[in-house]
Structures are given as C-alpha cells and as structure tokens.
Design brief:
17 strands; 9-stranded antiparallel sheet; alpha+beta; binds adenosine monophosphate
Length: 371
Amino acid sequence: MIIGILGGGQLARMMVLAGTPLGLRFVVLDPAPDACAGQVAPQIVAAYDDRDGLQELAERADLITFDFENVPASSAQLLAARLPIFPPPQALDVAQDRLSEKELFGSLGIETAPHVAIDRLEDLERAVVELGFPAVLKTRRLGYDGKGQRVLRRARDAEQAWGELAGVPLILEGFIDFDGEVSMLAARTAGGDVRFYPLTRNRHAGGILRFSEPAPPPPRWTSPGAEDLETQARSASRRVLEALDYVGLLAIEFFVTEGRLIANEMAPRVHNSGHWTQDGAVTCQFENHLRAGLGWPLGDAGLRGPAAMVNLIGENPPAADVLATTGASLHSYGKTARPSRKVGHVNVVADSWEAVGERCAELRTRLDLVD
Ligand code: AMP
C-alpha cells in the first residue's frame, strides 16, 4: 500500500515515520526541491496545480492524503476522481476559508468569535463600530502561524491594517480575552468509529504555537455549572466530524473564556498541537490518521503518562543540548534554520505533570527559548 501525500513538510515527514513500521510506503508531492519529507520518502517535485505532477502522484499511490489544507480544490478533485482521498475534499474546502469554517461551526451550534466578512474599506469601517476594539483583522485564506492577521486597537490601526492586508477577502473578528487556548484532536474512520485525544492546552507567542500539553485545565478556566471543557470539546468535534462525514485526523482549536469554548479554527489534518502524542499517547496522531484513512482499527488515543511538547522555532539547537534533559525526545525536521520557521519539537515525559513542567522549564532555559 502506497500513500501519496500532497505536501512534503514536517507533517508528511512524521506521517512517513509513523506509517513505515505498519508496512506502508509513501510518495510525497511538494514544489520545494528540498521539502523535508523528501528526506524520508520519494518526492515528486511539482506545483500543487501541476497536472502532470498530480497525474504521476495518482499513478504511484493507492490512497491520497494531505500535509496541509491549502491545496487548490481543483487538484483535490482531480485526484479524488482517480483514487480514494482522505480527509474528504469538502473538509478542505471549509477549512480553507475562515468564514466558511465559522459558518459551519455556527450551523452546528458551536460558538465562534463575533465576526464580519470584509471586502471593502467601508465594510471595515462599519465592522469596527459593530465589534468595537480590540478586534483582529485576518485574511480569510492562506493564513498560518499568525501570518495575515493584525490586531486593531484603535481607528488608525484599522487604516494601516487595511493598507497591509487589502486585496484579498478578509474577516474581522472580535478579540477574545481568553483564559487559555486548547485543541481537540480526534480521528474518525469511514465507518464512524471515533477516538478523541485528551484536550490539549496550547500557548502561542507571536501567533506561533510554542508549547502544548494534555494536562487537565486549571480550575480557574472552569465555571460553576458549565460542562467540563473536555466534554464540550468532544461534543463540538463529534458534530463537525459527522457533518463532514470525516475520515482521518481533525484538529479544532478553541479559546477558553468564562468556562466556555469558542472555536477559532479547524485543521483537516494532523496538527502541531498533537505532536506530544508521539511520546505521550498510546497511539500517535500520525498513526491514527493513517489507520483511519485505511479503514483499519483505530488505536487507543489515551495518555501513556504526563507529557508536553516544546516547539523549536527559527534555529536547530545542538541535539546534545536537548537530550541533556531527562525525558526529552528530539524530533528534528531536517530543515534549514530561518526566523519563525518551525524546525523541530521536543517531547518531554515524566511521572507527574509537575515534573514535566520542571523539565520543560529546564529545557527552555538551556535552549534560551521563548516561554
Ligand atoms: P489563528 O491563525 O487564527 O490560529 O491565530 C493565531 C493566534 O492568534 C491564536 O492562537 C490566538 O493566540 C491569537 N488570536 C487569533 N484570533 C484571535 C481572536 N479573535 N481573539 C484573540 N486572540 C486571537
């Protein structure tokens, strides 16, 4: 069985590393000749809309999946006409546009930030009055790691942000003064079997994920009388999985405020906030994504024990410096260093959440990382 992956970044690379022991083989398609998954699997170097490249991928693979969601819809359709593909292209369609994502959440009774679609400067002027300051102006498509978004704190920020982002469809969101950020990752098979990973707490800086851990939420995030966050997140995730007849791994990111979850966005793929599962869960997200797509039995998504993930951004620290921390596993992506680029992550395990925290703090100090 050969799995074709559209996109050859670190997510594809880790799918290959997780799927190889299961007897799977892979081929990736990526326009960058030095795509990091190309170090561990054969690569077709082609643009995502290159018909010859897509044709070759279809000929060499038995089943298609993605390492990122911004593949042109026409490419996904071209492949879907030739061979099975997961997650369903419809899920990609929805996730490519922040507005359709929010509309789906809304139609399923999942709360989102208040928002207004912005196509003209007049829309923005009206929307800042409606939503008030602060607010966040984002491109509807192709944003990631905080790119394509600006926080507006006063009227002149709106003009400046418009100058920087205009020209593509935008969305203005009310600013959520959140207590924390969490994500729910779940895998679903075509037969409807679902496994939920424990709710993961995430910390971002500069719009980029820095730290994730599946530790129980602190009591101050909960509100008396409200359903616990894990239950709320599972319920929202199940509704989305079923509405899209989803196959594979789905991640939904939420803000936590006053004991409620507010859905921010979803990713129809394996997700950075689930990298801890490689060392902290019985079955990692990459393996469960593949199992789901193959219609194989899903693996236990429960914890092996306390675990956390620290992202390595911008530069690759010496491996020995990472490994000097007890319980730390290095997952390097084989990428060259570049500011703000995700180049690897470290998973840290221990016998208690407190010890995980201490080991992460030690690691951050040694590597001089942003908290
Ligand atoms: P996103 O690209 O939507 O995932 O945004 C990246 C990060 O920016 C989020 O994880 C939040 O930390 C922050 N952010 C995005 N949207 C909002 C919002 N409406 N209110 C507050 N913070 C936000």
